[in-house]
Amino acid sequence: MNDQNFVSRPDDAVYETGEPVLYRVEDQVAWITLNRPGFNNAQNSQMTYALDDAFGRAASDDAVRAIVLAGAGRHFSAGHDIGTPGRDVNRSFERRASLWWDHSNKPGGEFLYAREQEVYLGMCRRWRDIPKPTVAMVHGACVAGGLMLAWVCDLIVASDDAFFQDPVVRMGIPGVEYFAHAFELNPRIAKEFLLLGEKMGAERAYQMGMVNKVVPRDELESTVGQIAQKLAAQPRLGVALTKQAVNHAEDLMGKRAAMDAAFAWHHFAHAHNELVSGDKLAGFDARAMARANREGA
Q1: Given 3-state DSSP classes, what are the helix, strand and coil percentages for the chain, each rounded to the nearest 5?
Q2: Do 157 and 135 contact (CB within 8 A), yes or no?
Q3: Over 60: is that where the pLDDT of 2 sits?
Q4: CA distances from 94 to 34, 71, 86, 101, 119 (A)
Q5: Taxonomically, which superkingdom (predicted)?
Q6: pLDDT for 122-146, tens place per residue?
Q7: Is position 34 within any domain?
Q8: Which pLDDT does position 212 carry in this prediction?
Q9: Angle at CA of residue 173, ends 1 and 11, nearest 5°
Q10: Does 13 reside within a domain?
């Protein structure tokens, strides 16, 4: 095969907002908000790089001692963008999380493999290693790619109406790219979560150890604010070293190696889907996944 055969793909994404992520600082806490509420905060690359900008801004600002990640609108995040006008999978962005080359003109499985090393696996690992404490404030849906954003945070506080779900086995894919399932959940529960693809309510997620606290929806922001203030009052270096210690322990238990293997299997599934159905997602777009969810419920 001649790997110099580059591919021209249409870049027809149309963004509905120039601010896919909002940022504010109050009382030493950076509040970072996913801001595509009309599409349930589906994550396109525009949002991903804006989120990286916000995390970088908070990490670099000495006045910020803690970080909260939230979602605007009805849901925290419905996952990766697989069907909005702003889906920008074919668009080039400057590499930040990895040194992988630009994906947009690459053939075959190289196209998604290079892209997702950067925007999914690489970015999530980068955000997990932010030395400042992070809290995910989850309400409504936290689905598939939404899980990845919550899981990179140190703490997860959920409203009582929140639910968590990774239904991508329906696409023939073994879970999302940042494969932390067997570390966020007991392995047997992780298998149930993936194989059945059912919604896990906030209370059960708390019982399984994936969520730190569940509160009524109208108390969510105030509760998270109080927790963030407590984190902000802790010694900066002590917090950073504690995060490093726990993250290192997880990696010694195999988290990073397991994730690398699962990422490879994830992309084998994409390639297999394209071979047998002509589509990397096995014919599922956002509407089809939502419809399957309703039918499954």
Answers
A1: 45, 15, 40
A2: yes
A3: no
A4: 21, 25, 18, 10, 11
A5: Bacteria
A6: 999 999 999 999 999 999 999 999 9
A7: yes
A8: 98
A9: 60
A10: no
CB distance 128 to 86 below 8 Å: no
Q: Say if 12 falls within a structural domain.
A: no
Residue bearing the bigger pLDDT, 295 or 37: 37
Q: Identify the residue whose tokens are 């947009």.
A: 104
Question: CA–CA separation, 267 vs 265, rounded Å?
Answer: 5
Residue located via tokens 């404490």: 133
Q: Is the pLDDT of residue 31 over 80?
A: yes
CA 232 to CA 63: how far, in whole Å?
Answer: 10
Tell me the residue range of the domain where 276 lies. 21-225+236-296
Checking if the pLDDT of 149 tops 70, the result is yes
How many distinct structural domains can be found in the chain? Answer: 1
CA 276 to chain centroid: 28
The two tokens of residue 8 are 């021209």
**Rounded Cα distance, 240 and 152, in Å:** 15
CA angle 65, 155, 217 (to 5 degrees): 105
CA distance 235 to 239: 6
The residue with tokens 């027809």 is: 12
- The CATH number given to whatever domain includes residue 176 is 3.90.226.10
pLDDT tens for each residue of 158-170: 999 999 999 999 9
**Total residues found in the chain within this entry:** 297
Give the residue from 296, 297, 262, 292 showing the smallest Cα distance to 82.
Answer: 292
**Residue 285, domain member (yes or no):** yes
Collapsing DSSP to helix, strand or coil, 33 comes out as strand
Q: How many CB atoms lie within 10 A of CB 55?
A: 23
CA distance 76 to 47: 13
